[in-house]
Write a structure and sequence with these properties.
It is a single chain. The protein is mainly beta. About 10% of the residues lie in helices and about 35% in strands. The protein contains one helix and eleven strands; from the N terminus they run E-H-E-E-E-E-E-E-E-E-E-E. Strand 4 and strand 5 form a beta hairpin.
């Protein structure tokens, strides 16, 4: 944050900080999320769980609501994405009831995503295996 030339802080980790089911590792979340909060990470991408999940911004254990589910405008927390469904055996779906969840498919599917950054705007688009868009969002700083 001291270097004003760095506009985005995006990390990738194997285990998701927030996820549904047995893939959620509470000790991982407990020990790592304080670092993400401290350094004001914008986006945390993870795999491990063979599904696609997108969460609301979270910082310090506070879940911030969205007025538009496809727009994170000046989010006050880190946005957590699990996108581990590009290969391997797909895992069960679920988790739409979680207070942090914005989107997860209602059925098993392989996905891939594209991410583009232009200045203060990040676009993230998720597609199924035939190229149909299943989710998208934009982060505007």
């Amino acid at each position: 944050k001291k270097n004003r030339n760095i506009r985005w802080i995006i990390i990738y980790c194997h285990y998701p900080m927030h996820s549904f089911g047995v893939s959620h590792v509470p000790t991982w979340e407990k020990h790592v999320t304080p670092l993400l909060d401290r350094y004001e990470v914008d986006l945390c991408l993870s795999g491990h769980r063979h599904v696609y999940e997108r969460h609301k911004p979270i910082r310090g254990g506070v879940v911030y609501e969205l007025s538009d589910t496809h727009l994170y405008e000046k989010p006050r927390g880190t946005i957590y994405i699990t996108n581990g469904s590009a290969g391997g055996s797909l895992q069960g779906v679920g988790g739409s009831h979680l207070p942090t969840m914005v989107f997860t498919p209602s059925g098993k599917m392989y996905t891939y995503a594209t991410m583009t950054i232009e200045g203060d705007t990040l676009h993230y688009v998720v597609f199924d295996k035939v190229g149909e868009r299943i989710d998208y969002f934009k982060i505007v700083k």
